[in-house]
Structures are given as structure tokens and as C-alpha cells.
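Troubleshooting log. The previous run stalled partway through. Resubmitting the same two chains, unchanged.
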Amino acid sequence: MTSDLEVLAAQVLSTAQPGEAMEVYVTRGSETEVSAYDGEIETLAAATSAGIGVRILQESPEGQRVGFAWAGSLDEEVIAATVLEARDNATFSSPDPDMVLATPDGVARVDVKLFDESVRTVTTDEKIAFALELERKVRAADKVRGVRSSSYGDAEVEMALASTAGILTSTRRSSAGASVEVIAADGDFVQTGYGYDAGRGFSSLNLDKIAADGIQRAVAMLGATKPKSMTTTVVFDARITAQLLSIISSALSGEAVVKGRSFFAGRVGEMVAHPQVTLVDDPTDPRAYGAAAVDGEGLACRRNVLIAAGRLEGFVYDTVSARKAGTVSTGSAVRGGFAGTPQPGCRALLLEGGDLTHEEVLAKVGTGVYVQGISGVHSGVSPVSGDFSVGAEGFMIREGKLAEPFREATIASTLQKMLIDIVAIGKDLEFLPGNAAGQSLAIAEMSLSGN
Amino acid sequence: MSNALLTPDVAQRVLQAAASHGGEWAEIFVEDRANVGASLDDGRVEELSSGRSRGAGIRVLVGETVGFAHTADLSETSLMDAVAAAASVATGRQGSSAPINLTPGGAYPTSVSILPSTIGKQRKLDLLFAADDAARAGGSEIAQVTVQYNDSRRRIVVANTDGVFEEDDQVRIGFMVMAIANGDTGLQTGFQVFRRTEGFEALSEELLRDLASKAAEQAITKLSARPAPSGELPIVLAGGSGGMLFHEACGHGLEADLIVKDTSLYAGRVGSQVASKGITLVDDSTMAGEWGTTRIDDEGAPASSTTLIEDGVLTDYMWDFLRSRKTGRGSSSSNGRRQSYAHLPMVRMTNTYLLAGTDNADDIVASTMRGIYVKQLGGGQVDTATGDFVFGTSESYLIENGEITVPLRDANLIGNGPEILSSIDAVADDFSMTTGTCGKDGQSVPVGCGQPTLRITSCTVGGTA
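Second attempt completed without errors. Output:
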């Protein structure tokens, strides 16, 4: 079945001039967002959006020159102007023999179910009721002083991609999410907690779980104090492990590697992690939030093994970075909507081989800290050098169990060392929004800074 | 500039329609934005990109409830559809046909001398090459250089049922250099940015070469950095290095949306001593050319300056339309901002800074026995309910016996905003501004921040040594 967006993309493609290669990426979507405050609807927003991104490649003796332009509209005149602008931009870029468009590589597309009709069939009133009920439930809990926000949102987006290199494809996906920001207080102690859930549709959200998660993260942390500085084993909860994998994945980007901006560069075949560590990126896994049928260049998404039993197997590539590395695309191009150009990236990371329950991980560690919140990731972690220093909060682990809460601490190490220092991997897998799943994960020898 | 985006006539009909649907108050915000970005990577022009977006966001208010819809189509038919969608929150309410009279604030030509769109693309690229060249000349250790150029022009029109009809033409220009040095200790990054709310006149080849040399020097210096200490230490923030820290650690807690919801620890504390004496914190969107400067905010309120903390005493918060309406304050403090027409405005900072004091910067270092001298801070974040913040250093040194000694590897600083404000024991007479991008509830806006050299008596440093 050809979607009308594919037709549009093909029409734009027909304006390509002889001797130039063109890629047209178009999206169209709609979204609803509701937030509740103090038992009332705070905001109700409905919107539609559409946009186009055009890449044009021009031949020259030294390689291809690329130009890019985008616009937040699919009006005929706007599209024509965008094509002209991309063509003009191409004349200024440096020729690059590796700058080519993706060509179909024969890998079969796996059609993961990405659309949940409930984003359409559920009424706006039911979505409003969800946000209101989430807030009510949280406010009713003991020691909750307030709710900063309680919201529900969903979106659906269609994408079509066409290129003169033989790509013509489209996808449609939906998403829904809800979250609550909880403020708990006990005397002078104030603590915040954030609960959320996300999936493909309204029906995949679990209100009770979001409320309980937000409440636990705020209330259980009341009375938290600054811990003593020490070197210790850190157990990350599923959310934080997912964040950690996501950070590590930016050093597994083929682009970062070919540009010498990854601490993994030149280390394929070496042991880079504990032998229990097998890390895969598999967007064809329907459980993954980031599951996708095709990548940002229209190639089929596929399972890529990045680290196998501690050994670095390879990186994720888009077409251009793969050529620079002397290999082929791994179907891993991602793009930030119509305003972005393709870059290699992971969509569905999974740390395999976990063998312990959450409780067993804590028991194995015995003494250490359990971290359920980190901050300052953007500033404190470098995928280039591997330096890792983040703010952390959570609980002390004593005698293999969670003990008193702590906050206002930092934990530090390097990503290289952390991968080697993994001492336990949980099997309590959680599929979370973003590009990674997570589970309980224990890492030894980290510096905890507090008093 | 003639107003091609939205005429007062169309705005009047759209707002009148919102009122007739039952809206108590309504606003139309139209935005036309054009961006140009170029990046030079490894000495090559990797990409030159141009972007264009244009659309309208319509807000309809009923009681405390906001209905919102946006559209990329500026035809009157489409605007009327958006009004109907936004007014769905007013379903069942009696509409009003009382006439709305708009009073256009006049046309405002942009104040920049050279619109970046009038400069050829090659000339912009030439600046990138010059900077690349300067960074590579910084030393043989420099392995990678990335240089980026961005300019944007954002034209906006805001009209509301109170009769406001204002427009602004915002031109911004930015330049970024990242240099990576390779040495025995691995890869280290140097990073410098220059950003102004100005036209192409703000850039010169000399300025950008200087910026690139600094990035290279920073990366090379960091090759010999040793691990930062772990634990509590005094911190000396160099002038202009740490403005974002006060933006995060204190500024956010002074935003009225958090105050009204009682989710900031500064709620109900106007008149109280919240910082050391001598500390004065200001938010000012009128500062010429600064990154957070505009002529009007995104709700049409004229730019203004608000003193938040004066000599350590909390004097006021930052306000947008909704929050000032709710509390009966009368007018906003021009802090209603939005990322784009597709986003709802909320309380945001503009240019936020700590005023200079009377101490001498060198004396502050000399009187510190052991501590950390922060020359450049990276990003950070804050929990506004508790004031707990985390901030990364991107260039810092150890202070030993009153002297700046060895460079330190990047580490996070962690602390509590209100505690830090009360533990500043020295404020120098120097002052400088920096730029940042502030993220809040998924929206990013450009902000300026500034501070003189100052000392915080104790802060937790998250190093490994």
C-alpha cells in the first residue's frame, strides 16, 4: 500500500535535476496533551504538525557535495523553496567521496507493530480523566505535600522517505505517555519524585504503577542525608542502567569512532567489559520503546551485537560513516525529525545475560549504595574521554538490603572502568522510553563523594 | 518592517471568535523563524543547512484552564479552526460579543546593523575556516576540530483580548569551537562559544580566531589534568564562569509558576534573608546584545529588569501573564517565554546575574588555602523543590596555598542552591556575562547569565582522587 505521504515524497523527488541525487523526508503528525492541577484541567492542547527535510548531493571530481534544508510545512511553495535552498547549500559544502545516499541492501524489513489505535479511539475526556485521577491518587497518599504536574500526552506520526538511490518507504507510529511529579514533605525535609510510563497507546499505560513509582521515589527518600565519602559498589536501578547504556552507546556510534571521538575507537576485538556483558541494539524487538521497521535512511532496522561476552564486536553505522570506516551501514541511521540529517545511533539497547533478581543483586553486593536518581549527566559524562561524574541519590545497601536514604552525593569513575567493574547483572528487565532497556546493575569500585 | 505575518484586522477577528466561543481571555502568537547553520568538521564543510518554520499558537483561558492549539497554516480559515480547537475548554460557556480593540504598539524594525541573511554563505564559511586554522595552530596535540556557525531570525507578533498587539524581530548569531587534544591520558575536549542577540556585525575573524585558540589551549591544558578531588572544598568561580550555576541553583526557584504551586523553597519568603549580605541577583531582558535579550517577551510585555534578591534579601519573583493574573499582581515582569509557536509560554529567565562586589579577584584566590578554581562551568541542573543542584566543570584548577596550580579533570559539583547563596564569603569587583540554553519542561530558550569572581566556602566535588 502506498501512503499519500509516499506519493508526496515521490513527487518532490521528481524535481531532482540531472546529475544530482536527492533524498526527501516528510512527516506529518498530531498530538494531544493534557495536564491536571489541583483537581482541574490545567492545560488541554491539540495540535497537528508537518515538515520536510531535503538533502541534495551534487557530483564533483573529488566527491559529492551535500546541501540540506528543512521547513515546518508541506505547502507546495514552501517545499519548492526548500528544494532550491538545499541545492544552493550543496554548492558550498566540501566534496566528500563517502557522501552518498543509502541504497537498498536486501535486508528484509521486519514490521514491528508500532501503531496502537487507542490513541485515536480513546476520547479526549478519558485522557483528561486519566491525568486528573493520577493527580488525585498521588495527592491522597501519606506524606505527599503536593503535585507539581500530572499529565497525559499522546501522538501519532507518519513518515515517508524517498530517494533517487531507490528508497521509497513509509512508517506510521503512535506513542502515549503519562507522568507525575510528586513533592513529599516531612517536617523540614522535602523530596521530589517522578513517576512515568510510556508505550504505544493509551491502553498500555498503568496509572497505579505511575502513581506508586512517583510516590515511592519522593516519600521513601524523606530524611535522606549526605553520605560519607568512600569507594564502594554501586547498584543502579533499571532507569539509571538504561541511562548509562544510552550514554555508552554514544561512544559506539560509528561516526564518533571514525572522527576519533570515542574511547572505543581502535579497540574492536578487545575485551572492553566484564565477560558477562553482552550488549545488543535490536530495533526489531517489539518490546523495545525505540523499536522501528526502517532507519533514518530507509534501510531495514536489524539486530546488531555491539559487545559479546565482554569483547567489542563493532559499532553502529549509517551509510556515510560506514563508508568512512570501510564497512556497510548497520541500518542504524537516526534523525531528529524533519529538521535533522541522518547520524548513526542506537534505538533499542539491551544488556543481555542478566541472571539475578533485584533482591539477589543487592544480596550479592552486601554493602554499597543503591542509586535510583542521577543528575548532571549532560555535564558530567564524556563519551570522548570516558570520564563519569554525576550527582546521585538513593539508598545505602547494608547486609544485602536497602537501608537509609542518601542524597547530595556524587558518584564517579570512568565508563571504561565501569564496564570492566560490573559485578552483577539483573534479569529484572524493564523496557523504558528512550533507546535502552534497563535492569539492576552492580558496578564495583566507584568513588562516592559526600561528607 | 511591515507586518506580513498577522494584521491587526485578522488578529481582531480571531480573538473575537475566541471570545464568542466562551473564552475569558485569548491570545494569538505568530512566529516566523529562519535558521542557517554551518559546520566545519576536520577542516571540511560537512553541512550547510537552512531551516524555516512559521505558524501560530492560540491560547484560550477559562478560569484556571488553558486551551491551546497551534497550526503551521496562517490562513484565516486555519486560524479560526485553531481557535475552535483551543476553545474546546470553554464548551458550554456563554460567549461574549463585546468588541475587542487592538492597539498596535507600532512597527519595530530590527535594531541589528547587518542582517545575517544579507551575508553570502561563503563569507560565513570563511570565518569557520579561519577558526579551524587557529585551533589547529594551537599545538600538535590537537587531533580534531569542529567549528559551527548559526544564525537565526525570529519575527513574532502577539495579540490578546486585553488589546495588546506587539511585534518583535529577534536576530541572533552564534559561533562554537570544539577542539579535541590527544595525549598520554587519552582525549580531552576544549569548548568555547560566542553568542549574541545581534547581527553579523558581532563577528570578526580576529574574535573567532581568538576563541578557537582558547578552545585549543583548553584541550591541551586538560591533557595534563589530574583527577579532581572528592569531598567538600571551597570553590572560587572565575568571573563569568559560573553564572549558569546561579541561574540553575537559585533562578529557577524564583520563577512564579513554581511559587504559585508552592513547589519552590523560596515560596512565601519575600522580605527574608536568603543569601549572604552583598549578594544582589537580577533578571534583565533589556541588556543590549545579550543572549537572553528581547524587546518584548513572548506574551507582548515590554522587556524589563527585575531585582530578585537585594543585598541578600528576597525582593521579588519572575512572572508571566498567567501567574501575575492568578495572584492579582497586575502585570508580568516580562518573563513569559516560549520555545516556538508550538509551545505554551511559561515563566522563564532572560539574562540573570549577580552584581559585582568590592573584593579583588586575585586576593580571593590568594586567601584560599586549598580549593578549586573554576574557569569554565559546563551544564547543570537543579531540583527546584529542594534546591539541590549538580554542575559540571569543564576547566578547573587546584588552588594550593593561595595559588592556582594543576589543571583538574572534569568533575561535577553538587550542592544546595540556598546553602550556596548563604555561603558566599567574597565577591569581586569584576563581572562578565556568558550564554546558555535553558531547558524547562521540554522547552529550550536562549539565556544570558553573569557573575563576578566569587568564593563559595564549601561545595561537594565529585572527583575520584
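Takeaways: Residues 205-223 of chain B form the longest helix (19 residues). Chain B touches chain A through 79 residues (CB under 8 Å).
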